[in-house]
Design a protein that fits this description.
Radius of gyration: 22 Å
Number of strands: 20
Structural class: alpha/beta
Strand content: 15-25%
Bound molecules: S-adenosyl-L-homocysteine, iron/sulfur cluster, FE3-S4 cluster
Number of helices: 14
CATH class of the largest domain: Alpha Beta
CATH superfamily of the largest domain: tm_1862 like domain
Shape: globular
Helix content: 25-40%
CATH architecture of the largest domain: Alpha-Beta Horseshoe
CATH topology of the largest domain: pyruvate-formate lyase- activating enzyme
Distance between the termini: 30 Å
Length: about 450
């Protein structure tokens, strides 16, 4: 019987996608996926270092997996951003870990396993390939069979220097994937039934893979079978006119823009090294909304960055009101190794934890009210929904998303992959509810709706 692997994924879309590439590398050397880590012969943690909490969660998971090593001799590997950051320190801290590999070493998994299994050595492979010589792992489209929507990596790394952020230290310099490879992958994905792709990178606006990012989006929309194109993440400073223009001319570019602002205070933004002011940010947002009036905008915000005063925080509340975000991901600031903010913390002043949490609660309550208000405006409307499968909360209902990326749970029988109209009857701050109407376009292939990605466990 073939050996079984289990991958536990933490973190962002980059990691979710990397997990797919890891599973392909493992399958190529005879491993099969299992959803039950207690039956695994190999357990891999694909880790995230963005906040201390993510790192803590990974260490407690690692403690659980130690038992599987003790009971059945499973191999344990740690990949992703904590692996890149901690390198051999992870082997010292957790003696039951067999190997540590960085995001650039996913393709080396077969060789790493050979060395661990045959030579009985512990391996650390965290070399970076920070140049155009880097070859992005090519997705096996079969991995995505059964999915309606899929991520496609277009670049890696980040050349920005945001003072709070660990990503440049865990993912290295920016390298763009050649656009022909991206388009080839998109075409292969549509052949197995994928209808929506999300182009991903830490900083997609600065894509340099042979054409501009705006052209990359337009070309992706032209791939036969592509219904919607999304992307994430963008830095506000290089939101170009060309990109705004692309939103105007190509309806397949989904009307949703995730534009992380981080703070509503110019003083804080300056210390964060975000190199835009709130006024500049709002001006770009206004141009985007003028180009595509139906666009939904979401953002990321950090509260309690060193030196953030009550007045600074109130400016974040004001910005949240002014920008009228459809949604936001907000976090309390977490000091990270090697970052500029960590070095300056004492000088700028640490915001006490209770104050950070109290501010986060206020911000989230405000955003919840705005999200509910905006979502409620959809009640009574008929929206176009790309069906992704059964509703997560009620298996008798269906689940999909609007072009604006709003989640819709609805009564109906449309299969995954179909594009349908849904009459909206209810709204909450996080989703919409309704009843299926007209079929706009049937699913291109029949999709088996058994839970896909049993090996994927996103934390
Ligand atoms: N590349 C993306 C961000 C990726 S990280 C961008 O620039 O927009 C996702 C989000 O995590 C960030 O937008 C930020 O809001 C949050 N984040 C990053 N570092 C953090 C830290 N040290 N503490 C708290 N939140 C952080
Ligand atoms: Fe981090 Fe800033 Fe790069 Fe985003 S743009 S990954 S926040 S350094
Ligand atoms: Fe986390 Fe690394 Fe993504 S730090 S957010 S998994 S790039």
């Amino acid at each position: 019987m073939s050996k079984r692997y289990f991958i536990h994924t933490f973190g962002c879309q980059m990691n979710v996608n990397d997990t797919l590439r890891m599973s392909e590398a493992l399958k190529s050397v005879g491993y099969a996926a299992t959803a039950d880590f207690e039956r695994a012969d190999l357990i891999v943690l694909n880790t995230c270092a963005i906040r201390e909490k993510a790192e803590d969660k990974m260490h407690s998971a690692l403690g659980r997996y130690r038992q599987v090593k003790l009971s059945r001799g499973a191999l344990i590997g740690v990949g992703g951003c904590v692996a890149q950051q901690e390198k051999s320190k992870l082997l010292e801290r957790s003696p039951w870990v067999d190997f540590v590999f960085g995001p650039d070493a996913i393709g080396n998994l077969p060789q790493i396993l050979e060395r661990v299994g045959q030579d009985r050595v512990r391996v650390v492979d965290t070399a970076w390939v920070d140049s155009e010589e880097y070859v992005f792992p090519r997705a096996d489209a079969e991995t995505s069979r059964g999915k309606v929507t899929e991520f496609v990596t277009i670049m890696k790394g980040c050349d920005n220097v945001c003072a709070f952020c660990v990503v440049p230290h865990t993912r290295g310099r920016e390298v763009s994937r050649p656009f022909v490879d991206v388009l080839d992958e998109v075409a292969r994905l549509t052949r197995v039934g994928v209808r929506e792709v999300t182009l991903i990178g830490q900083n997609v606006n600065s894509y340099l893979g042979g054409i501009s990012f705006a052209q990359m989006l337009l070309r992706t929309c032209e791939v036969p079978g592509v219904e919607r194109v999304r992307f994430t993440t963008s830095h506000p400073h290089d939101l170009s006119d060309e990109l705004i223009e692309a939103f105007k001319v190509q309806p397949k570019i989904a009307p949703h823009f995730h534009l992380p602002v981080q703070s509503g205070s110019d003083d804080v933004l300056k210390r964060m090294r975000r190199d835009y002011t709130v006024a500049e940010y709002l001006e770009r947002l206004a141009r985007l909304r003028a180009a595509r009036p139906d666009i939904a905008v979401t953002t990321d915000i950090i509260v309690g960055f060193p030196g953030e005063t009550e007045a600074d925080f109130e400016k974040t509340l004001q910005l949240t009101e002014a920008a009228k975000y459809d949604g936001q991901f907000s976090f309390v600031y977490s000091a990270r190794p090697k970052t500029a903010a960590l070095l300056k913390e004492a000088e700028w002043g640490v915001v006490p934890h209770e104050q950070k949490v109290e501010r986060l609660d206020r911000l989230q309550a405000l955003q919840k009210r705005i999200s509910l208000e905006l979502n409620s405006q959809n009640v009574g409307k008929t929206l176009e929904v790309l069906v992704e499968g059964r509703s997560k909360t009620d298996a008798a209902r269906r689940f999909g998303r609007t072009p604006q990326n709003r989640t819709v749970n609805f009564d109906g029988d449309a299969p995954a992959g179909a594009l349908v109209e849904v009459k909206i009857e209810r709204a909450s701050a996080s989703s919409l509810g309704g009843v299926q109407g007209r079929m706009l376009s049937p699913a291109p292939v029949k999709i088996d709706e058994a839970p896909a990605d049993a090996e994927l466990c996103v934390a």
